[in-house]
Amino acid sequence: MRKNSVKSTRINSEVQRVLAEVIRGEIKDPRISPLTSVVAVEVAPDLKTCKAWISVLGDDQARKDTYAGLRSAEGFIKNQIARKINLRNTPEITFILDQSIEYGVNMSKKIDEVISEIPDREDEGAEVE
User: Fold this and answer.
1) Could you give the CA distance from residue 35 to residue 40 in angstroms, rounded to a whole number?
2) Average pLDDT of 98-112?
3) Which residues neighbour 69 within 8 Å (Cβ) at sequence distance 6 or greater?
């Protein structure tokens, strides 16, 4: 199975959907932040392993606690994926903390700050004439 094949894309999106459902609604661990999202999932072509990029909105302690909670719930998560998706093999999940959403929010705030400091262009044009 090629990396960008239709089958690979469908498996990745289905595993991502189910993983998000399980994290959001079925895990009862209080360490896992309610502001946790599954950014991306990449299942290996042999369906043995899976990388899941997880984003947690909050401070460093919330990220560490959520990561620890997800690591301890790996068996439950794998069991739920096996029950909900009919795959030949159920992949072992490796969680990777992704900070791209937080980075994007911070960059957006910085851009807004810079834009608010720049005087309006219309005001400059009136002064020149």
Assistant:
1) 16
2) 85
3) 27, 29, 30, 31, 32
The token duo for 16 is: 């991502």
Any domain includes 107:
no
Q: What is the pLDDT of residues 49-70, one digit of tens each?
A: 999 999 988 888 989 999 999 9
Token duo for residue 103: 């980075």
Query: In this structure, is residue 93 part of a structural domain?
Result: yes
**Mean pLDDT on 120-128:** 56
For the chain, how many structural domains are there in total?
A: 1
Q: What range does the domain containing 61 cover?
A: 6-99
Asked whether the whole model's pTM tops 0.85, one would answer: no
Specify if 53 maps to a domain: yes
Burial class of residue 23 in the structure, from the number of CB atoms within 10 Å of its CB (0-12 exposed, 13-18 middle, 19+ buried): buried
